[in-house]
Every structure is written in C-alpha cells, then in structure tokens.
Amino acid sequence: MNPNDFLSDPNLLPWLIPVGPLVAFFIIMLFTNRARLVPATDHSYHDHNHPDYDGMIVPVVSFPSRVVSIVVAMIGIGLAWILSLIVVGQGLGVEKLGKKVFESSLPWMATGVGSFSMGVLVDPLTVVMLVMVPLACAMIFIYSIGYMAHDARQSRFFALIALFAGAMLTLVVADNLLLLFVGWEVMGLCSYLLIGFWFEKRSAYEAAIKAFTTTRVADVIMLLGIAYLYAETGTLSFREILYNHEVLEHLATTPAIIFGGLSAAGLIGIFLIIGTIGKSAQFPLHVWLPDAMEGPTPVSAMIHAAAMVSAGIYAIVRMYPLLEAGSHPHEGQLLAPMMLMAVIGAFTALFSATIAVAQNDVKRVLAYSTISQLGFMMAALGIGAYIAAAFHLITHAFFKALLFMASGAVIHGMEHGEAHARAHAHHDDHHAAHDEHEAHHDAHAHAHFDPQDMMNMGGLRQTMPVTFYTFLIGGLSLAGLPLITAGFWSKDEILADAWLGASKGFGPHALVFILLAVAAFLTAFYTMRQLGLTFWGEPRTEAARHANLGRGVVSFTMTLPLIILAFFAITAGFVGVPPAFPVLGPIFSPEVNPFFEFVKYTLLPEIQPEKPPFNWIPVLTSFAVALGGIAVGYLVYWRKPLQAGQEDPLVGFLGPVHTVLKHKYYFDELYTAVFINPSQWLARVAVSQFLDRGIIDGILHWIARIATWIGDFLKLLNTWLIDGVGDGIPELVALFGAWFRRIQTGRVQQYLLLIIIAAIVIALVFVASSGVLVQAAG
Amino acid sequence: MTEPFMFPILSVIIFTPIAAAVILLLIDSDKRDLIRGISITAAVIVLVLSGAVYFGYNNLVGQVNTNQAAIDAAGLANPATQMFKDGLAFEEKVPWLDSLGISYHLGVDGLNAPMVLLTGMVAVAGVLISWRIEDRTREFMAFFMLLVAGVYGVFVAIDMFVLFFFYELAIFPMYLLIATWGWVKLREYAAMKLTLYILIGSVIALVGVIAMVLVASNYFTNEGAAVFEAAKASGLLAENARPFSFDMTQLMLAAENGAFDVAGYAGVETLTFAKLWFPFVFIGFGVLAGVFPFHNWSPDGHVAAPTAVSMIHAGVLMKLGAYAALRAGVQLMPEGAQTHLPWIVFLTLINVVYGAFIAFRQRDFKYVIGFSSVSHMGLVSMGWASMNIIGMTGAGLQMFSHGAMTALFFGCVGMVYDRAHTRDIPSLGGFVKRMPWVAVAFIIGGLTSMGMPGLSGFIAEFPIFVGMWNASPNVALQIGGFTLTNYYSIIVVLAALGIVITAAYVLRVTSQVFFGEFNEQRYSDVTDITITDRIILFLLGAPLIILGVYPIIMAPMIEAGLRPVIAILGGGA
Question: Quick one: pLDDT at residue A436?
Fold first, then answer.
C-alpha cells in the first residue's frame, strides 16, 4: 500500500490517528530523554515533589531535551487531532453513518479455530469520541508544558502521556474487543507509571500500585468475559457481534456455562461490566481513584476526564447491544447485566456525591465527583438511555478536564504563593521587626503546609481571575446550571429517560430517577462549596494571599487550555437540545435532536432507542435540584465566607456523619482488613509456611528421614550380613588354606602314603561307579 | 523432504557445545579470556543455527498446513501419524542400536522449533552473564556447554531413547553446576533435592516408555501386523522397520490404532495400558515442569543455582518437562490424557494460584521469581489439559514466552545481586536511579508475566483462557458415581484470579527494589550494568515485545505442530 492510500481512503485513515502520539513516545523515550547531572540540592531540582538527597548527584533533564520533547509530543498529539478532525468530517458527511461504516483490518494471530484480526472502525460513536478525546488530550499536553516546567523528568512525563493518549486513541478506533483491551491495558500501565511519577514519595508509588492492582482485578475478569465471548462466537469484531442480530440472539438464548439461569450474553455482559466497574472506579472498586491524585495534575485530568475512566464507560457503551441482549429496557424488562449497571451506577452516583461533600482536598472533591458522574452514565446505560449516557460522557469529559486543570492551576498558584510567603517571612526576619504571631504561624504553615487543602485557600479570585472564571464555568456545568451549561443538557436527558420509565411504573427506572436527582442536588451543593472555599471570601493563609501563576510561558500555557475548555463546557450541550424544549429547542434543534439522530445509527435498527417525548417533570426536577443545590451552597459558603481558623459549617451540621463521610465510609480501612491483610496472611502463613514449607516439604523431609533410617538400617544390614557374607567367603577360603597347607610336610614317605591312599580311593570309586553303570545299563 | 545430502544442522547444534566442552577441558585453566571466548563463540554459533532452524521451519509452515489439510481431506488410514511424520523437517536418522530398536533420530516440527530458538537465546545469555565468574571458569563453562547440549538433544529427539539419553545428560552437569558454583547456604541441599526429584520422575517415565515400546512391539507382531505392513508399504514407516522400536512415529502409529487402549490390561477388566500409565509418564516428566505437589525442587534449585544456571533452568529446562510430558504423554496416550487430564487440571490450578501466593510473600528476590515460575508453568500444563488446539497453542506460546521472560527475570536479579550483594527485598530500593536498564527490563518482564497486551504473556494466556472456556462443555470427570461437568470454566476463573496475584507481587517487587528511596550509604559502589549485560537484556527482552505485537511469527507454527496431537486426541478443536 502506498502512503497516499492511507490519506485518501477514509477506511484506512483511522489507522494513523494513534500513530502520532505513539511515535512521539518512542522518539522521546529513545532520543530526547537526555539528562544532565546536578547536585540534588540545586534549586532547579528542588521542589516539593522531590526529596533532598544531600550530596547526591541526580539526573535532571537537559534544556534542549526538554524543549525537543515538548515539540515532539505536541506534533504527535497535533497530528492525531488533525487526523481525527478529518475523520470526523468524513464521518459527518456520510448519510446515516452506522449503517455503513469506515473499517479495515489485518490478520494478526491465528488460533486454530479462526484468526484474530486487528483493525479500525469508525461509526457514529467513534466519531463522537474522536471529537472529544484528541481535543482534551491536546489541551492536557499544552497545560503540561507549564505545569511540569520545573520538573526534573519532564521529558519522561511527555513520553508517558503521549503513550497514554496513543493508547486511548487506539481504544477509540479499535474495531474489536481485543484491540480495545490492548489500549485499555496500556492505559492501565501508563496510569501506574504516571500516578507513581514522583516515585520517591512513598504515598505516590503506593497509590500507583493500588490503582493498578484494583483495576487489574477487574481487567482480568473482563478478559475472562472476552475469552468466553470468543469461545462462544469465534470472533471479537464489534460489527460481527454487535451489529448482527443472529449472533446477539444466539448469545441471549444460549444458557451460560456457569451460574445457571444466566444467558451467555448475560454472563459475558457481567464480566465486561466488572471490567468497567474497575476502570471507571464504580462502587465497590472505587477506592483507587481518589488516591490516584498523587500523580501530577495533568495526569489526573488525563485519567479522570479524557482517557482512562471515560474508556471504561466507552467500553460498556460500545458493548451495549450485547449487554442489552434479551432485555427490553423500554418495556421495563431488565436482565442481570442491565440491572447490575442501573443499581451500581445509581448507587455510586449518590454514594460518592455524599463523600465529595465532606472532602477538603481540592482534587479529592473532584475525584469523588468524577466517580459520581460516571455513576450517572452507568445508571443511564442500565435503564437503556444509551444516547444520554454517551452524551453525558462527552460533556463530562470537557468540564471535568477543565476542572482538574483549573484545580491544578490553583495548586500551582498556592505553591507559588507559599514559596513567596516564605521568602517574604525570611525577608522580614532580617528587619527584626516582625509580628511574633505571624512568624509562628508561618513556621507552622511551612511544616504542614498542604497546597491542596481548601481550608488554606480563600479569596483566590483576586489573584487568579482567569482560573476563577474558568473554574466557575466548569463548576456550574458540573452542577448543571440550567439552560446555559453543557452539564445541564446531558443530565436532563438522563433524567428524562429515567422519568419516562418511572412514569410507566418500572421500578429500576424510578430508583435511578430518585437517586440521581438527589445526587445531582449534592453535586450542585459541593461544587458551590468548593468554589466558595477556594475563591470566595478573604485569603485564609499567607500562601493564598500570594497565590498566582506568575507570568510568561507557564502562566500562558496553563490558562489557554482552561479558556478553550471553558468554551466547550458551555457549548457542547447545545448539540443535544430536545427539539420540543421551549424557546431553545427550535433554536438549536429546528427539526431533530442532532446528537441523538447521529448517534442512534450506531445500533441495529431493532434496538435503536426512541426519543422520549418532552415532559415537564424531569425538566423541572433538573431545574430544582441544580438551582436548589447551588442556592444552599451559596447560602452556606458564599454569603458568609469561611474565616481563617473557622470550622467548616458542615461539621457542626452533620456531626458524626461528617466524620464518616470524611473518611469515605471507611472503605480503605475495610478493604485493608477484609482483603489485604487476610490475603497476605494466607500467602505468608497458610500457603508459604504451613502448606509449602510445613506439609509438602515436611512430607519430603519425613520421606528423607525415613529414607535415612532405612539407609542406616540397610547400612547395618550391609555391614553384618552382606559384608559378613562378602568378607566371610574370602576369610573361609583363607582359613581352609591355612589348615590345608599343613599336609605339605616335605617328607617323601608321607607323600607316598598319600598317593597310595589316593590311588585306592580312585580305584574304589572307579569300581563302584562302573558297577553302578553296569547296573544302569542292565 | 528427502534430499540427497542435507547439512546435519541439528547434530551440529547438539555437538558444537559438546565439542566446545571438550576443547575447554583441554586448555589451560588460567586462560580465562580464551575460555570465555570459546564458550561465547560456541553459544553464538548455536544461536545462529537455531535461528536458521526456527526461521527455516517458519518458511515451511504454510506448506505443512496445506499438507495437513490435504491429509485431513484425503481420509488416510492414520492421519495423525501421517501429519506428525510430514511435519518433521531437518530430519536425521541413523541406526544406533538396531537390535534394540534405537535409532539416532532427530527432527523439528512446529512444537519444538520455538524451543530450539529459546535454548539458543538462553545459552548465549547464560554465557554472557557468567562472564565475570573467576572461580574455575573452565569447568563452569564446560559443564554449562554440556547442559546446553543435553537440553537441545531432548528438544530435537524423535526417538524416545535418544530423548532419555539427553534428558539424563542434562541433569548431571546441572547437579555439579549448582553444587559447586551455587549459593553457599543452600547449594548442596538444593542440588541434591533437584537431582533426586528429576531423576525419580524421569525413571518412572522411562519405565512407562519402555513398557509402551514393549506393548507396541507386541501389537505390531500380533494383531497389528497388517497395520504394520500397510504402514511400511505406504512409506509411513521405513522399509526396514522392526516392530520393536523407540521411534516416536512408530509408537504414535501404535497409539493411533488403539494398541494402548485394549481393555483388560494387567488383568483388570476396565483398565487399559494408556489409562494406567498416562499419569506416571505425564507427571513423571511433569516433575520437571514443576507440577504440584512435585514443584518444590524448583524454587530451591533456582535460588541456589548461579545466575546462568537459574536462567537456563527456569527458562529452558522446565519447558523440557512440559514438552516431554506432551510428547510422551498426550501424543502417545491420548486415551489416557482424556481420562486423566480432567483431574490433573486441578493440580495445574493449584500451581498457578499457589505459586503466585507464595511468590507474593517472599523476602528473597530470587525466591519470588522461583515461585513465579511454578505459577506460570502451571498455565502451560493447564493449556495441555484443555486438549483443544487453541488452548494448547496458548500453552506452546507460554512455553516460549515464559522461557524468555523468566530468564530475563533471573538475569535482572543476578545483576542486582552482583552489585548489591543482597537479595533481601526490603533492604533494596531506588535502584532505578543507578540501574535504569535493569529496571526497564524487569518491568517489561513483569508486565509480560501479568499478561499485559502487547507483550507475549498476553498472547499466550488469552488463548489458554479461550481454550479452557471452549473445552468446558466437553470435559467431564467421573469420581465414583458422581460426574463433575463443566468445571473447566470455574477453573479458568480461579486461574485468572491467580494472575491478579501475579500483578500484585510483580508490582510489589518492582516498587520495593527499583522505586522508593535509594540507600546512598550502603550502595554507594553500585554502578550501572555493563555492555554484556545490556546485550542479555536486549536478547531476552526483545522477543517478548516482538511476539506480543506480532504473534503471527510463532503462533501458526506451534499450531501446525499441535495439529497431529489434536488429530490423535480425536480431532475436536
């Protein structure tokens, strides 16, 4: 194939999308990762993420490497973005994309029963993802230029996020479950390496291990599902399974191999959903995600918005026809996989929203909010709201990427402010005229200062206005501020679908509707709390007073992505306005809901969802919960902003419940007690010491001992009997010889006598024997 | 494939190391560089020839597949044996002890070609990593060469007697290498333990094989005489073949015609030869593959052995057991396999989970890898137990993948140990700063072992899982009056969870050894690795990635090698 084919043929073009970032990864890893060695106490190395190694020489990426790495990574992601846009354009140009798709594949491995192919597929769902993923990734890349500007390993960082982006894009364009799984796992690896990027910090690499192990449990179960699916159908291609009524029918009617009562589709579906529960951090495997905050902030944005957790939801959205096989969600029939999604999703949405309310760490609030929002999507999918789930996936990615990067800017600003405050304090000491209390306070702050603690912030709107406004836009979009934000439209659509089912009297739909409405209320509330604590009121510490991003490249590259994403956090919702919505409907959707009409052709005609008719109840509910939450948050945290040293009003209001929430319902402790300690005990005591060393080696050693005893016994036997016989024969011979030689006297007369005796004996024997012979003959 | 003269490449591969060993023993023991030079030259020659064998066979795979399809379609009398015979390439056959039915018969098919390549790689890596051994270098290298020759011999033997001959030839230098150059605290115990385990296992298997030869000979002279004559006439057997023979082709012919499946063996009405002897032969060889509960020689042996020996031991020798168990067990006694593998699979499951659990709790760096081998080899046996082509192909891939991976692991451990002089995991840490190459290689190996897609472990484990799912409805286990069905699916679920534990221990070791704080005082003299070490890491690490990204380079070959086995098992894919 010549390269022109790749560019001109829309079936081949998607192959190139992940190539840019992947090539960037290799180039940076192999060529532009040169370091120079500086003393560890050098100021260019020292920042709060790296410990001091007094007297040690440490590698710090050299300036040319740093610049070239940035350029290479930007070119890589830029190419991916441009190609994605071309593919998106081509996809939008096709009437009813989905009935016809862009695809191509190559054989990859033969397995005896068939062969795995690896290929690419562009259908409406892919197009939608290709709008979001490269854009969000590119923003994260730009942001990282500034955010990681002082890090000693910036080249390595760019290599890893390029690999991360490449893996995500691979996953998005994959035409089969196996390639999707490849991207999925490579992302898991990247998340491990990036969460533990500051590996000198114990908490960082522990968080990395936690993330990887937790998701790994789920991944292996997902892999089993994939293996079972392959065993059952002989293919893993999306089109052949998901766009093929016979295959789906077959899977839905075949009983599962284990767990009687389930269909094959049901069991596979549950396995795949468990994979997503791990990857998208749903209850009960949510514990890794908040700890993943240990990574640099762009990584958090990558994991939480653009890539990793979105991939989890994307996978179940992609596999929806399989999960749905046999169920009729729009008639209230939900089989096990759908029910699982609805219940887990709705529960997680509410559960983690309550935790988010009581967190003080600016990134942890967002982490729990991510878990909660992913729960919205999962619940939506569980009740058959396929399009709504996909829609929320996209809008959420934009505003969550924005929020994470804005919070990173806040943290960066706080660190900056803290350094400034410290320098300032030292300066004052020289003048010897200094407020005693201030100095004490500053020393205290220095020892325990946490730049991520919202209690240390306040009033940041004054020094960081761009961050404030963009954070505000992102926050309101997350809160679902009606009409103007993207978050409103996508959440409203989920609620509309849930209401439709609930109004027909379907229990799961009603459950989802109620839990999500409460969760949406809490979302609005904790967002306002976060905004209030961070930006409103007066600064509560010296660091907050001096917080800013500085000037120049760092500031510019960190604020530009915020502004661009803020634009999308508002406008992304307008592609999915219901046509019947008063006033706005006719403006944005004159005929049909464009998002809905475009995406629905991803599915087979038989299972394409119907657009729910416009209904005031869910819309008013959306209004009520969003505005209600915002209002309560405003009253508590904006009208009377927190003063320095003052306690969070929630503590008094919620009492012991707050403690429980603050400790995340003690799930970490529970898992340590229930899983980690017993399995370590089992491994150490039961298996390693008792079974392996005790019993198996014990038996072996017993056998050895018995063998030794037998050996000793035989040796004894050997000495007495065998050696007795063996040595005895020669001894007897010698004895006989000694006795016998006495006939050798030397006297001739005696010899003659012996000869005569011998002759007589021989003669007698001869005569006797011949007599016998004669007798015998006779 | 009968050409007038063929370069006896397999014999050259076997005898080059033997010749090198002899030469080494003749030269002055003080000329260490010369000794090293001779050793590495021999190893590289062997590796190049192994590569030629591998890729040479790879070129034939298409042809072999076509032939197999034709045989399948033609409905010949003995399709499995025919496939097996036709699949052999680079054959050499010289009568050895004609009266005893022993011939020096070597050959390569899709199953052992990857093993030949693997042995070559590990041989070169082993010589390189022993570069700095100063204690009796000459003897070390000579024994190492003998070991390599023995391993090669087993892999390419088509005659069962030759297989045993080389099997024992491999064990004897192994004992000396461990007992002389091993880790002082453990070496005598471990060497003895290892040798006894393997010898006892192989003796039991040998008795089984001799019994098999006798039964086959009996069969061919009596009721199977017609089959024998027909096979001679059709060219399946040589014209001068005798009924009494150790040749695998001939034994397979007997097996295919049911010689081992005659009821009433040993006077018991329901018993057949295959049913009685399969467990002894399979597990007898399986001892070397670390089948539970006969695995305990392996971690101790690995830990006590010098690095090069650990590499070849875990990397290649354990595969020898799995390979021989397949060849002598499953391929020659299919009925026995169908009867017994359904319970042996439980042992393999225990291997997988149990080895991983123990590895998780070890403090000694090398023991972690030792037990991880036990765990991974369980997957190979599990793949055999699936008895269908996809699962067995996975097992074949796992043999290669695990061989390269574990040799890489032991290489990494050896490099760290050489410099840090301890293998106590909690006292290491932060080594990525000083030994970045080793850290990267170790992580690649670790990811392979936990089945990360894009690396060879995944393309080995995934087919094993699929194979087990596929096999699940077809397998039943009869215990007294109770029939257990469909339990393979549960086994595969549990085994998959074992892989989670793999992830846990790999990450734990990685983070504690390579990440975290570096103890500057204690390890101030730790330096980065040398160029020879880098070659090792590259040699063993690159195949993991290549195979993971582009499995078509090996999977079809292994599949072609397994098709006769599947055919004799009854063709069920």
Answer: 44
Tokens linked to A697: 């080696």
The C-alpha atoms of residue A176 and residue A508 are separated, in whole angstroms, by 31
| pLDDT score for A722 | 63
Name the β-bridge partners of A97: A100
Residue A510 CB neighbours (<10 A) = 17
**Gap between the Cα atoms of B290 and B310, Å rounded:** 14
Do β-strands A115-122 and B89-97 pair in parallel, antiparallel, or remain unpaired? Answer: unpaired
CB contact under 8 A, A209 and B507: yes
pLDDT at A685 (0 to 100): 67
Spatial CB neighbours of A510, under 8 Å, sequence gap ≥ 6? A498, A501, A502
CB within 8 Å: A200 and B507:
no
Tell me, what's the pLDDT at A723? Answer: 65
B389 and A112 within 8 Å at the Cβ level: the answer is yes
**Two structure tokens written together for A771:** 């007599």
The predicted structure's pLDDT at residue A502: 81
Residue of A nearest to B436 (CA): A59
Disruptive mutation site among B58, B294, B297, B357 for chain A (greatest number of A CBs within 10 Å) = B357
Bond prior to B293 in cis (omega within 30° of 0): yes
Q: Which has more pLDDT, A289 or A551?
A: A289
Asked whether the beta carbons of B445 and B314 are under 8 A apart, the reply is no
**Please, is B305 exposed, middle or buried when counting C-beta atoms within 10 Å of its C-beta (0-12, 13-18, 19+)?**
buried
| Contacting A residues, span 84-143, partner chain B, CB-CB under 8 Å | 107-113
CA distance A236 to A242: 10
Of A212, A221, A226, the CB nearest to B507: A212
Q: Which residue has the higher pLDDT, A604 or B315?
A: B315
- If you average pLDDT over residues B432-453, what whole number do you get? 85
Closest partner residue to B496 among A208, A213, A224, by Cβ? A224
Dihedral over alpha carbons A612, A615, A619, A624 (to 10 degrees): -140
| pLDDT over threshold 80, residue A726 | no
Residues of A in contact with B110 (CB under 8 A): none
State the smallest CA–CA distance between residue A761 and chain B in angstroms: 54
The answer to whether A50 contacts chain B (CB < 8 Å) is no
Is B500 in contact with A196 (Cβ distance < 8 A)?
Answer: no
Query: What is the average pLDDT across A505-513?
Result: 83
Lowest mean per-residue pLDDT among A232-246, A271-285, A651-665, B364-378: A651-665
Question: What's the whole-model pTM score?
Answer: 0.80
Say how far apart CA A737 and CA A735 lie, in whole Å. 5
Judged by a CB distance cut-off of 8 A, whether residue A758 touches chain B is no
pLDDT at residue A702 tops 80: no
Q: Which of B400, B489, B514, B549 to mutate to test the interface with A (most CBs of A within 10 A)?
A: B489
Per DSSP, the three-state class of A623 is helix
A55 touches chain B (CB under 8 A): yes
**Whole-number Å distance between alpha carbons of A535 and A462:** 8
Interface contact B517-A112, CB threshold 8 A: no
Give the integer Cα–Cα distance in Å for A468 and A480.
18
State how far residue A199 is from chain B, nearest Cα, in angstroms: 6
**Tokens of residue A429, six digits:** 């000491």
Q: What is the pLDDT, as a whole number, of residue A189?
A: 85
SS3 assignment, position A557 = helix
Min distance A227 CA to chain B CA atoms (Å): 5
Contact criterion met (CB < 8 Å) for B361 and A51 = no
Average pLDDT over chain A, rounded to whole? 79
Place of tokens 């005798």: B242
* Higher local confidence (pLDDT), A690 or A515: A515
To which H or E segment does residue A425 belong? helix A386-431
Q: Of A68, A127, A138, A71, nearest to A97 (Cα)?
A: A127
